[in-house]
Amino acid sequence: MKIFIFIICFFIFFSIFSQDTRPIRDDIGYCWQPDQFNRLIKFLKPNERGQFNHLKLIAGISPHDDYLYAAQVYYPLFKNINTKEVIIFGVTHSTVRKKIGNPQNKLIFDDFRFWSGPEHKVQISPLREFLKKKMTGKYFLTSNLAHLLEHSIEATIPFLQHFNPGIKITPIMVTGMPFEEMEKISDEISQFISIYIRQNHLHLGRDIFFLISSDANHYGQDFNNTCFGQDARAHQLATAQDIKIARTYLSGHISKAKIKGLTRSLWGKTYQDYNNTLWCGKYSLPFGMMTILKVVENIHRKGILRGKIFCYSDTYSNGVLPIKKTGCGITAPFSLKHWVGYFSAGFFLNKN
C-alpha cells in the first residue's frame, strides 16, 4: 500500500515539474476559448463605464475575480495596455500558502516555458531567468506547484493576450513580508529590472509593463469579516472604505509615503494582521508599487509616477453580467453575507 501511494505521489510531482506549459487552473471563473472571449469583449466595449482612452500607461492594477462579476472592471485597464512584455505581481492566497509550507519574505518564480492562453501559448520573458541569476537566493524561490495552484496571475492572461497577441510575461507571486523586507527585496529586484530595461533599450509602457493582481475587501461571515455588520448599511460602509483606500493611496502622485500609508490601511498591528479590511493584495500591492516606483526613479530620475482609479465594483452591487455563451461561470455566491470588492487602476509618468 505504501509503495502504491509513493508511486502515485511520484507521478503527480513528476508531472508538475516536467510540464512544458502551465495548464489552466480556473476554467470556471475565466474564459479560455477565443470565440467565447471575443463574445465577452463585444459585450464590454459598448457597455464600458466611463471612457479611458489613449492613456500612456506604464503600470496597472487588475482584479482577479470571476469575469462574470468583474469583466467591466478589467476592461478599461487592459484596453489601454499596448506592450511587448509584462511583469505580473500576483497574490499568494492562503489556500496556496498552506499547501506549499507558508513561505515568508520571498518572491516565487516558476520554471514553465509557457503559460496557457486563449489564442496560443504565452511565452515567458527572458527577464525571469535574468532575475533568478542576479537576485540574492534568500529573496526568492522557484515553485511550479505554487504557480499551478495560484489563480491571481492567470486571471490577467486572456485580457493581456487579446489586446497584446505576442505578449511575453514574467510571473511573480508575492508572499507575506513586513515593510522592511519589502524595502530590501524591492530595492534589489528594481535594480535588476532597470538593468534589463537599459541593456535591451526598452521603454516603459511601450516595451515593458508592470501589472499587479489584487482584489479588494472580502466581506461577510464566510470570511470572518463583519466589522460593520451584515446589512445594506454595512455594505455601503465597507465599499466606501475600499474606495477611500484606493483613491487615497493609489491615485495622484505616488510616493513611498503613500505606499507605506497603504500598508497601514490594510495591515493591523503587524504585517500578518488585517485592519478592518480583507484585501488579498495586501502584499502584492505595496510590493509591486514600491518596485514600480523605484524602477521609475532609476530610469526617469525626474519623472513623477501618477495613478488613476478606473473602476470600482463588488459582487453584490452588480451581480452577474447578463451575457451568455462565454464559457464562464461563477466560483462563489454573492449576498450581503458574502461579497468581494475589486477595482482597476492605471499609472503613467509625468516628466518634469
- Relative strand content: 15-25%
Distance between the termini: 70 Å
Name given to the CATH architecture: 3-Layer(aba) Sandwich
| Proportion in helices | 25-40%
CATH class category: Alpha Beta
CATH level 3 topology: Protocatechuate 4,5-dioxygenase, Chain B
For the residues shown, what is the average pLDDT? 93
What does this structure look like?
There is one protein chain. With 352 residues, this protein is of the alpha/beta class. It has a single domain, classed as Protocatechuate 4,5-dioxygenase, Chain B, CATH 3.40.830.10. The protein contains twelve helices and 13 strands. Strands 1, 2, 3, 4, 5, 6, 7, 8, 9, 10, 11, 12 and 13 form a 13-stranded mixed β-sheet that branches. The longest helix has 21 residues. It is globular.
Would you summarize the structure shown here?
The chain has helices spanning 2-18, 34-44, 67-78, 94-99, 127-134, 144-149, 157-163, 179-199, 232-250, 256-266, 284-299, 315-318; strands spanning 21-22, 57-62, 85-91, 107-109, 114-115, 122-124, 140-142, 168-174, 208-213, 218-219, 252-253, 303-314, 339-351. With 352 residues, it is α/β, with parallel strands linked by helices.
